[in-house]
Amino acid sequence: MRRARQDKVRQVVYDQLEPLADKILDTVSQTMRIAKDTELVYVYGGGSIPMLDESNLRKVLNEKLKSFSGGYDVPVIWIDKEYAQYLNELGLQVIVEAL
Questions:
Q1: How much is the pLDDT for 45?
Q2: How many CA atoms lie within 13 A of 67 on its CB side?
Q3: What are the pLDDT digits (tens) for 8-61?
Q4: CA-based angle 81:82:85, to the nearest 5?
């Protein structure tokens, strides 16, 4: 019974990966219109680890970034889950200090 519930929850999460990838791409597009010249992109947090393996986010993100860079590859670094929590905390500190 427990295994069946875990499988059901896992399936619900995976069903949301592609719609989430689409939202991420929309946000990347908005950001790239402002940033213009981007040399490197880091991906972490927000379920990025399962999205790396279980969605097409890497492929479509690379394509989207190329469309903004004149066809050049923009390196995308996927931060491992071991470091993601620390980077989330560090990002919040930067925001607080900026406010």
A1: 76
A2: 12
A3: 877 887 788 888 889 989 999 999 999 878 899 988 877 788 888 888 899 999
A4: 75
Q: Which 3-state string (H, E, C) describes 15-65? A: HCHHHHHHHHHHHHHHHHHHHCCCCCEEECCCCHHHHHHHCCHHHHHHHHH
CA atoms within 13 A on the CB side of 72: 8
Q: Which amino acid, 75? A: P
Q: Which amino acid is at 26?
A: D
Average pLDDT over residues 54-69: 91
Buried (b) or exposed (e) across 80-98, using 16+ Cβ within 10 A? eeeebeeeeeeeeeeeeee
The two tokens of residue 74 are 């923009």
The tokens 């923009």 sit on which residue? 74
**Tokens standing for residue 8:** 């059901």
Kindly report the length of the chain. Answer: 99
